[in-house]
Amino acid sequence: MRIVIGEDDALLREGLALLLRAEGLDVVATAGGPDDLLAAIAEHAPDVAIVDVRMPPTHTDEGIRAAVEARRRMPGLAVLVLSAYVEQAFATELLVGGARRVGYLLKERVGRVEEFLDALHRVADGGTAVDPEVVAQLLTRTRPDAGLDRLSAREREVLGLMAEGLGNTAIARRLVVTEGAVHKHVRSIFAKLDLAPTDDVDRRVVAVLRYLRTADGR
User: Fold this and answer.
1) Domains of the chain listed by start with CATH number
2) Average pLDDT of 190-205?
3) Which burial class, exposed, middle or buried, applies to 176 when counting CB atoms under 10 A from its CB (0-12, 13-18, 19+)?
4) Is the pLDDT at 191 greater than 70, yes or no?
5) If DSSP codes are grouped into helix, strand and coil, which group holds residue 43?
6) What is the tens place of the pLDDT at every residue in 154-172?
7) Is the pTM of this model over 0.70?
8) Burial, 134: exposed, middle or buried (Cβ in 10 Å; 0-12, 13-18, 19+)?
9) DSSP alpha helices (H): ranges in 56-149?
């Protein structure tokens, strides 16, 4: 896996590079600003870009805008976004746009090496990875939804893990239950949310959006 890191904090940037190289991953370049990040991606054509949300010069959304531009230029690029705080609007848009090969983690998650690497590999393999704390904060802001109110506590827990980007096998491991039990919960979630099978939409994404859209006031 070839990786480019975009992070303006030199200590974190080099620490990430050392961590990933120690795991046998190929960090081909690091960058401290959006322009350098785009140049490094163009030069090295990495599999994944790890990008800080806030970068110079204004430290607002330069990192995100650079990541979006990088994906426009290189559609197959996977992007794992790091943020010190829950940026609710971006976290919601990540799934509203039906994004694939995209992840959103809080920086504190980097210190939990196994979880960080799992998210990195999931994004590189074509999936999504959303920080559990991001999901938790969005869910606490959720406004009433008749369909969501019908879910049991366990079904809401399963849906929360779906929102992190986990598949049924990973959810089963997290909850220490069988994959068959998770499958039954997922089917029940779809039924209670009135999501019939169709080729037009991904029911897992639509179910998660019911959470995120209500949390975002949509």
Assistant:
1) 2-130 (3.40.50.2300), 141-215 (1.10.10.10)
2) 76
3) exposed
4) yes
5) helix
6) 998 898 888 888 889 999 9
7) no
8) buried
9) 62-73, 88-96, 113-124, 132-140, 146-149
